[in-house]
Amino acid sequence: MTKERLLPLTKTDLIAAVAAHTGSTSKDVATILGGIEDVVTANVAKGEKVVITGFLTFDRAQRAARNGRNPQTGETIKIKASKSPKVSAGATFKKVVNGQAPAPKLNKAK
């Protein structure tokens, strides 16, 4: 019994799949996806939360300054405070992933 390795869906693959599903051109989908990335990134960088209800929530988390340890030398080091992106799955997305709701039916490329 061999396990089939699942490859990640790349950005190019995603654009092609959305174009096939919606009947749009790959160029239009790429432009829209790029716009979504820009708007989400700019707003989260400003500290605003972006919510796509039922799907994903994008937010910024604050990480406090702390002491760490250099794994090679064991020396204690100071780690500066930082901000990091935080992404959470929405309720509808979670239900589909857990098999509690059906996944959307996708149109195939022609």
SSE topology:
Layout: H1 11-22, H2 26-45, E1 50-52, E2 56-63, E3 66-69, E4 76-79, E5 82-89, H3 91-97
Antiparallel strand pairs: 1-2, 2-5, 3-4
Helix pairs in contact: 1-2
What's the gist of this structure?
This protein has 110 residues and is of the alpha+beta class. The chain folds into 2 domains: 10-45; 49-101, Irregular (HU Protein, Chain A).
General description of the model:
- The protein is α+β, with helices and mostly antiparallel strands.
- The chain folds into two domains: 10-45; 49-101, IHF-like DNA-binding proteins (HU Protein, Chain A), CATH 4.10.520.10.
- It contains three helices and five strands; from the N terminus they run H-H-E-E-E-E-E-H.
- Strands 1-2-5 form a three-stranded antiparallel beta sheet. A two-stranded antiparallel ribbon has the order 3-4.
- Strand 3 (66-69) and strand 4 form a beta hairpin.
- Helix 1 packs across helix 2.
- It is elongated and about 55 Å long.
- The model has no long low-confidence stretch (mean pLDDT 92).
